[in-house]
Every structure is written in structure tokens, then in C-alpha cells.
Design the sequence.
């Protein structure tokens, strides 16, 4: 059992439109999708980079977790997401190994993927997300 690849790296940005413009120039490619996650008060722009993606996450409101993150730590890397084959198995493996899980059970993320977060206290100060791709029926 192992992690498959880096799914995406998420960057917290204050102004998604401004960040979108500069990252499109930096990477020489366009933001593919922009999605608003209403319950988290965040707007997400995804830019493909090879087999991974860069996720630009901007707050839509001062009470969003991204806004609080920026107030505390400034803009910067917010989390790293690894794609795994079996998220439930990985969560129980990591829990047994002593990692502090934010989500004990996977929840539904963007694109219908199952996702879960691991507390940065256990992972060198970086929030880690696990993601299992939706099975193609
Ligand atoms: Zn993510």
C-alpha cells in the first residue's frame, strides 16, 4: 500500500483573480476550472501541471478557513494532496501509526472524490490531504 502521486498543491491567495493571472503567466497555461465551495467559503482555481495540479484557493468571505489562514500565516502553501488507491485503508493505517486525523472518515470533495485531511501537527507543519479518485462505473 502506498501513495500514488501528488494530486495537487494548494496555495492560499487573497485575491483569486490576481493570482490566476500571475500563475497563468508563470506556468504558461490556463486555469482549467473555477469552483466555489460554499460551505467552506472558498473559491478554487485548478491549473494542470503535468500529472498534478496547482490549486489556487481564495476566500469569498472573512470567516472562511482560507481567510483565517492568510491572516495568521500570510499567503502561501496551504496543503499538499496525495492521491491514494484506498483512502479508508490509508486512514486506518495512519491512525494506527499515531497520526492525528482531522477526518477520521473520508468525505466528499470536489469532482466527487473522497478526501480526508491529516493535522499539520503530525506532518511537519504542512496540512496533508488524501484523495481517492471516483471509481469509473
Ligand atoms: Zn485540496
Sequence:
Amino acid at each position: 500500500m502506498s501513495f500514488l502521486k501528488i494530486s495537487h498543491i494548494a496555495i492560499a491567495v487573497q485575491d483569486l483573480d490576481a493570482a490566476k493571472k500571475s500563475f497563468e503567466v508563470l506556468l504558461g497555461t490556463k486555469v482549467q476550472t473555477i469552483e466555489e465551495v460554499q460551505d467552506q467559503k472558498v473559491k478554487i482555481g485548478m491549473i494542470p501541471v503535468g500529472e498534478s495540479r496547482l490549486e489556487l484557493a481564495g476566500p469569498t468571505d472573512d470567516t472562511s478557513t482560507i481567510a483565517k489562514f492568510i491572516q495568521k500565516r500570510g499567503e502561501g502553501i496551504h496543503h499538499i494532496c496525495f492521491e491514494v488507491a484506498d483512502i479508508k485503508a490509508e486512514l486506518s493505517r495512519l491512525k494506527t501509526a499515531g497520526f492525528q486525523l482531522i477526518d477520521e472518515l473520508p468525505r466528499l470533495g470536489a469532482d466527487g472524490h473522497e478526501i480526508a485531511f491529516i493535522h499539520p501537527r503530525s506532518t511537519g507543519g504542512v496540512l496533508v490531504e488524501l484523495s481517492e479518485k471516483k471509481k469509473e462505473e
The two ends are 23 Å apart (CA to CA). The longest strand covers residues 3-12.
